Amino acid sequence: MQSFGFRRLGDAPRATPFWTQANALLIKNLTYQKRNLRRNISLISFPIILCSLLAAIQTFVDKNLDNPDLNCGCACVDKNGDGKCEKVCGIEYSSSTQAPNCPNPSPPRWAPILQMPAPDFRAVRTDFFPYTDLPNESCRESASCPVTMLFTGKNRSLGNILAGNMVPSSLFWNSSDAMNAASLNVLGSEKKPTTNGYLDSAFFSSLPLYYILRQCVKSPTVSIPVSLFSLTNAQKVACVQGLQLWRNSSSQVNDEIYRGYINGNPEGKINEILSGFDFLNSDRNNFNVTILYNSSYKASAGSPNFRLRVPRLVNLVSNGYLKFMLGAGTEMPFQFVKEMPKHETKTQIDFSSNLGALFFTWVILQPFPVILTSLVSEKQQKLRIMMKMHGLGDGPYWMISYAYFLTVYAVYMFCFVMFGSVIGLDFFTMNDYGIQLVFYLLFINVLVSVAFLMAGMFSDVKTAEVSAYIGVFGTGLLGGFLFQFFIEDPSFPHGWLILMELYPGFMLYRGLYEFAFFSVTGKIIGTSGMQWGDLTDSTNGMGEILIIMLFEWIVVLLIAYYIDQVLSSGKHPLFFLQRHDKKTTSNNLVLERQRSKVVVQIDKHDVREEREKVERLLNERHPGHGVICDHLKKVYPGRDGNPEKFAVKGLSLAIDRGECFGMLGPNGAGKTSFISMMIGLTKPTAGTAFVEGLDIRTEMNAVYESMGVCPQHDLLWDNLTGREHLLFYGRLKSLKGSALIQAVEESLKEVNLFKGGVADKQAGMYSGGMKRRLSVAISLIGDPKVVYMDEPSTGLDPASRKTLWNAVKRGKQDRAIILTTHSMEEAEVLCDRIGIFVDGCLQCVGHPKELKARYGGVYVFTMTTSAVHEGYVEDMVKQLAPGSNKIYHLSGTQKFELPKHEVRIADVFLAVEKAKSRFAVLAWGLSDTTLEDVFIKVAKGAKTSHMLS
After folding, report:
1. Checking DSSP bridges between strand 645-656 and strand 625-636, what pairing results, if any?
2. CB 821 within 8 A of CB 772
C-alpha cells in the first residue's frame, strides 16, 4: 500500500500571503469601527465627561476653600492703648481649622520625647519570646511593666557601660521651668505622632507622659503646664522603668523587635520593644552604632524624622558615649524640637488626586468589558471560525486583532490623559509624562492580553460582560478598602504585596496610588510630582509595578495564545512538542483502514464501487478529484452511562471537480458530523480525507486556503454591508484591485443582491432570504476549489430559490460542491450525484435518475372510494399486478405499489374506467417514483436492517 499523504502535482492550492490576510482583516475591522462611530464617540466621551465633572467639583471645592473662616484668624487689638484697635492676624487668634494656614515665623518649642509602647503592649516573657530576662506577664495587670531596650555589639563590657549611661537613675526637675526640665529627662509617650508640626499632641493628650529611670522606687508624679494659643493643659508625667537587656547579635535584636509587632508572631499579639542598639566595633577611638526602632509609627509618608521621635534615641546613645569618654558630668542637652518657620498658606485640596486611585481605576478599566465582549461575540456567533474556514490564519488574526484593540484602548487613554491635563488636574500635570506613558502603555498591553485570555474561557457574551463589569467595580472597591491598607502598612510582608500586585486590577491601583500620592505631596510642599529619579526610592512601588507589568504582559499573552490554539483550534495540549512524521501518519492510516474494514460491512454494489474507486485513486495518486474520503470515522465518547455514539462509520467517497454531490439523510444520520470534520470543526476519530490533495488531519490550515463554506445558519456582521462582506472574504482569497471589484460585482449579481442599493445596506437589515443568498455568494467568491453548502435555500421564496440554484449551477464549474439538503427538488435540480446517509453509513450513491430507476421500479396507484368498495379496489389491483403491495389505507383512500414489469399503463386506465361504471370513484391517480420515495424507502430499509442486526 502506498502513502496516502499525497499532494496534487503542479496544481497545489496557493496559500494567501500572511500580509494579505492581515490587510483584509484590518480593512474589515476599520470598516466595522466606522460603522460603530456612535459607540466609539460614547466610549471616548466617557473619560472626558468624568474629567470635566472632576474639574467642576475641584472648582467648587476651591471656591469654598476661599472662605475667610478657613484663612488665618484675625482680631482687633489695641496696640497703643489709645482705644483704637488694629486688625492683627496670627496663630494666637486662630481656631484649630485656621491655624495650619497662618504664618509661623517662630514655631513653639517642644521637649523631645520617645515613642513608647502602651502599658498593655510592653514586652514580657511569652512562648514566642522565650528570653528569661524579660519580665513576667503578670506586670500587665498592675500596669508596672518596664519598657525594654536591647543592646548588642562586639564588646559586651563596653556595651553595658554605654547602656548604663543612657538612662538616668533619678529625676531632674525644675517646676519653674518645666518644659526645659522635661528636655533634661528621658520622656516618652504612647500617643502616636500627627502631621501638625506646630503641635505635639503628646502634650495635649489624655494619655500620660512617662519619664524613664533605671528604677521607679517612690518616684514622684510631676506635672508639665502647657499653654499654646487657646489651648492649655497640665500634662501628668509618671515614672516607668527602663529595662536594658543584652543580646548576642544584631539579628536577634532585629528579630525580637519585629516579632513584637502584631503581624510578626504566630499568636498575633503585640509585645513591643522600645528600641535596639548595635554598638558594632565601637571603642575609645571609634563610635559606630545602629539604632533599631518600630518604624510603623510613621504618621504619613514623607513626614520629617522628628515626627518618628527618633532624634531622642540618637541623643541618648550619643550622651552615653560622651559620658564614657569624658566622665559622668558630661551632658549634651537636647532642649527642644520644632518645625521650620513657614509663610501663610491657603487650604488646598486636590480632589482629583485624593480621589484618584479609586476613581481612575474604574475609568481606566472601562474599555476592558468592551474588548472582552467583542472577542467573545466573535466566538459565540462563530464569526472567528467562519473567517478561519475561508483562509484566515491564526497569526494574522492575532496580530491584527491585538493591534486593533490596543489602538482603541490607546486612543481612549490618550484622550483621558490629555483632556485631564488640559483642564489642569494635578493628577496628570504634576507627574512626569514619560512615566505615565510607560505605565499606561504597559498596562493596556497587559489588559488586552488578559481580555484574549479570558475570551477563551467564555462562550456566552452576557456572562462575559457581567463578569467583566463585576471585576471592574470589584477591583476598585477592593483596591480602595483593602489593598490600599496593605500598601500603607509597613509591617505587611512585601512578598505578599507583590503577589497581590500580580492581579492586573491591583497592579493598576498601586500605580495610580503612587501617582496620586506624589501629586498630593508635591502640591503640599511645592515640588513636582513623580520623576524618574523617584523610582529608585524603596518606598515608591512604581518601579516594581513597571517590571511586573512587563513580565506579566509577555506571560499572559503566551498563555492566551496557547489556550486559543488548544480550545479554538482543537490542537493537542502538547502541540508545541509534537513533530509531524508523514511516514508514521501513513502507517497509522493503513492500520485504521484495516480496522474499519472489520467494523463496516459493505454489501451494496454502488457503495462498494465507490469504495473501490477511492482505493484506486489513492493507490494511483490521482490528482483529478477535489475531495477523497478514506474510511472516515467519527465516534463520540459515551457520557453519563450512555454508550459511544458512532456518528460516521467508515465513509469512503470521491467527489470530482465540477461535480455537485448531494448528501441526503434523516436527522441524526451523521451529515453534520461529516461536514464538521471536512471543514475542520472536529477531528476524525479514524480515517482521513484529502481536499485538493491535502490531508484534513495534518494540513487543515492549507485546506482552508481552497475552501468555501455556506453554513446552515448565516454567520454575518450586522454592521457590515453585503458588499463589505464580499470584499473582506475576497481579499482573504488573494483578490486585489479591479479583480476584486469585478468578482464582488459579479457575485452580487449572481445572487440578486445588486439592484436597488441592497448591496450597500447593512446585513442586519437583510431579510432571511437575502442573508442566505449573501452566505452562498461568500462561499463561492475567490474561486475556492471545494465548497460546502449546508441547506443553502432554507427560508427562500420560490423565485429567490430559483435564482440561487442558478448561481450554484454556474458556480460548480471546476470546483467540487458538497451540499446537504432536505429538499428533494433541490437535490434533483443541483446535484450530479446523491448519497443517502443513514445511521452513519452511506446506503446508496448515484445520479438522481439512476437512483430512481434502481429503487423505484414501481408505479404508485392511488384511489379514493366509499368504504364499502375498498375490497373491489383491492381485487382490481391484484388482477392488474399480482405482485402489488398496499402501502397506505385510510377512510376509503388506498395507495398501492405496482411493479412496472407486471403492468401496462393502458390496462390501468381501462380498469379505472370499468370501476367508474360500477361505483363512484372519488379520486384516483398513477405516478412514477419520486426521489422522495427513494429516500424514504432507503431510510426505512436501512433502519430495519439495523434493528434486525
Report:
1. antiparallel
2. no
Total Cβ atoms within 10 A of residue 533: 9
Angle at 11 between CA 9 and CA 13, to 5 degrees: 115
Runs of H (alpha helix) within 423-460: 426-429, 433-455
Neighbours of 669 (CB within 10 A): 24
- Which grid coordinates belong to 555? 506571560
The rounded distance, in Å, linking the Cα atoms of 898 and 905 is 10
> What gap in Å lies between CA 262 and CA 486, rounded to an integer?
14
Q: CB of 406 within 8 A of CB of 375?
A: no
Dist. CA 160–CA 156, nearest whole Å: 6
Burial of 444 (0-12, 13-18, 19+ CB in 10 A): buried
Q: Where are the domains of the chain?
A: 18-51+350-567, 67-102, 113-326, 602-848, 857-928
- Residue 353 contacts residue 523 (beta carbons within 8 Å): yes
CA distance 722 to 714: 12
Q: CA 826 to CA 856: how far, in whole Å?
A: 19
Query: What cell numbers appear for 707 in the block?
Result: 475552501
Give the residue among 593, 626, 635 at the shortest CA–CA distance from 696. 626
Label the pairing between strands 694-695 and 686-691.
antiparallel
State the DSSP H helix or E strand holding residue 926, giving kind and residue range, or none if neither.
strand 921-928
State the pTM of this model: 0.68
Q: What are phi and psi of 361, to 5 degrees?
A: -60, -45
- Whether residue 543 contacts residue 532, with contact meaning beta carbons closer than 8 Å, is answered with no
pLDDT at 945 (0 to 100): 54
The amino acid at 921 = V
Task: Determine the Cα–Cα distance for residues 381 and 763; give it in Å rounded to an integer.
Answer: 14
Cα gap 145→134, rounded to integer Å = 10
Neighbours of 535 (CB within 10 A): 17
Cell digits of residue 790: 449546508
Beta-carbon contacts of 299 under 8 Å, excluding residues fewer than 6 positions away, are 192, 193, 194, 195, 307
Is residue 42 within a helix (H) or strand (E), and if so which, with residue range? helix 37-65
CATH number of 857-928: 3.30.70.100
- Say how many CA atoms lie within 13 Å of 293 toward its Cβ: 18
Average pLDDT rounded to a whole number, residues 208-236: 79
- How far apart CA 872 and CA 344 sit, in angstroms, is 123
Dist CA 455 CA 402 (whole Å): 13
Helices (H), 132-220: 156-166, 178-184
CB 826 within 8 A of CB 932: no
Residue 569 pLDDT > 70, yes or no?
no
- For residues 820 and 789, give the distance between their C-alpha atoms in angstroms, rounded to a whole number: 6
CATH code, 602-848: 3.40.50.300
Query: For 51-61, what is each residue's pLDDT tens digit?
Result: 777 777 777 77
Q: What is the rounded CA–CA span in Å between residue 382 and residue 395?
A: 18
Instruction: Please tell me the least confidently modeled range out of 24-33, 564-573, 584-593, 610-619.
Output: 584-593
- Beta strands (DSSP E) in 585-719 are 625-636, 645-656, 660-664, 686-691, 694-695, 707-710
**CA-CA distance, 435 to 432, in Å (whole number)?**
6
Q: Which residues contact 945 (CB under 8 A, 6 or more apart)?
A: none
Model confidence band, residue 229 (pLDDT cutoffs 50, 70, 90): low
- Asked whether 657 and 824 are in contact (CB, 8 A), the reply is no
For 137, 259, 400, 863, 866, the CA distances from 917, given in Å and listed in that order, are 126, 118, 81, 15, 14
**Is 50 exceeded by the pLDDT of residue 8?**
no
The pLDDT assigned to 494 comes to 83
Query: Using an 8 Å Cβ cutoff, are 826 and 793 in contact?
Result: yes
Amino acid type, 884: S
Unique residue bearing C-alpha cell 383512500: 893
Helices within 568-644 (DSSP H only):
582-599, 605-620
431, 515 Cβ separation under 8 angstroms: yes
For residues 795 and 770, the model is more confident at 770
